[in-house]
Amino acid sequence: MPLRLYSPMPSLEGATDWIQGKPDPVELIGSPVLVYFWALSCYVCHENMSTLKHWRNTYSPKGLKLVSIHCPRMKSDDNFDRVKTAVETFEIKEPCGIDRMHKVKRAFKNEIWPAYFLFDREGKLKRRAGGKAGLIMIEAILEKMFDK
């Protein structure tokens, strides 16, 4: 069963590595947080990175925090150096957890790539979405949150 709306944000513990530092849970409190899951082998994930970059540039100055979770879909995705190169290529600036054991994925009850989980300032799930169309649903909530 997917994570229910208004559920508290699950722990990010379980990532085996972090690129660009592990997020401090205390620093996430009081801010909207977008946690997104992606994989090297997911072409839709790659296509959606430009939208995530746009959101980072637009909404981070207004208080949005982003957390990236790379969750391997297959053995070829489990290469730290390739993930690190992809983080640079896609210009991911936020902390990026490497979820080799799928512990974070299970905590979020996530079964798809890409997946997006938007939490409000109180740390409650406001919207979850996946795939290319999921960006439209998340963007509508972001616009409302930040009165665009």
Question: What key attributes describe this structure?
Answer:
148 residues, alpha/beta, 6-stranded mixed sheet, single chain, globular, 5 helices
List segments where confidence is low: pLDDT < 50 over at least 5 consecutive residues.
Answer: none
Helical run tally: 5
Query: Could you state the order of secondary-structure elements as H and E?
Result: EHEHEHEHEEH
What is the SS-derived class? Answer: alpha/beta
Largest sheet descriptor: 6 strands, mixed
What's the mean pLDDT score? 95
Specify Rg, calculated over alpha carbons.
Answer: 14 Å
Distance between the termini: 33 Å
Shape: globular
Strand order of the largest sheet: 1-4-3-2-5-6
- Number of distinct beta strands: 6
How much helical structure, as a percent, in the residues?
A: 25-40%
Could you characterize what this model shows?
The chain is α/β, with parallel strands linked by helices and 148 residues long. It is 32% helix and 20% strand. It is built from 5 helices and 6 strands, in the order E-H-E-H-E-H-E-H-E-E-H. It has helices spanning 25-28, 43-59, 80-89, 103-107, 134-145, and strands spanning 17-19, 33-38, 65-70, 96-98, 115-119, 125-130. The protein has a 6-stranded mixed sheet with strand order 1-4-3-2-5-6, covered by helices on one side. Strand 3, helix 3 and strand 4 (96-98) form a beta-alpha-beta unit. The chain is globular and about 40 Å long.
